[in-house]
Design goal:
The protein is mostly beta strands. The chain has no helices and ten strands. The chain has one domain (about 5-100). The strands form two sheets. It has a five-stranded antiparallel β-sheet, with no helix packed on it.
């Protein structure tokens, strides 16, 4: 089963599928809401709110890992989810997210 990573609401990053969990991505303003996400396969991405000044979560791939399958881009703030979606294949062992501190996604 694949793992999908995406933003939800205006302050959460969700991890759904084989690896499940969420982290809070709070900030004092939209420019600060987001996280650096590091996955066990080597995938590294920045997940950040307010893509293009809209209420959309953007995902910027920094390093492609062995399980990386792609990113579905979002351009509509009314879409469900209102976020780009990063997909990893089977085999994710752990995911860490750094907002203010490093946190194991659970």
């Amino acid at each position: 089963m694949a793992t999908k990573i995406y933003g939800a609401s205006d302050d959460l990053i969700e991890f759904e599928g084989e690896y499940e969990g969420e982290v809070g991505a709070y900030g004092t303003d939209d420019r600060e809401k987001g996280a650096l996400v590091v996955c066990s396969d080597g995938t590294v991405a920045e997940v950040k709110y307010s893509k293009g000044g809209a209420g959309i979560w953007g995902i910027n791939l920094l390093k492609k890992g062995a399980l990386f399958q792609g990113i579905d881009l979002c351009t509509d703030a009314d879409a469900r989810p209102h976020s780009d979606v990063l997909t990893l294949g089977d085999g994710v062992k752990w995911i860490y997210a750094a907002t203010r501190d490093w946190e194991l996604v659970q």
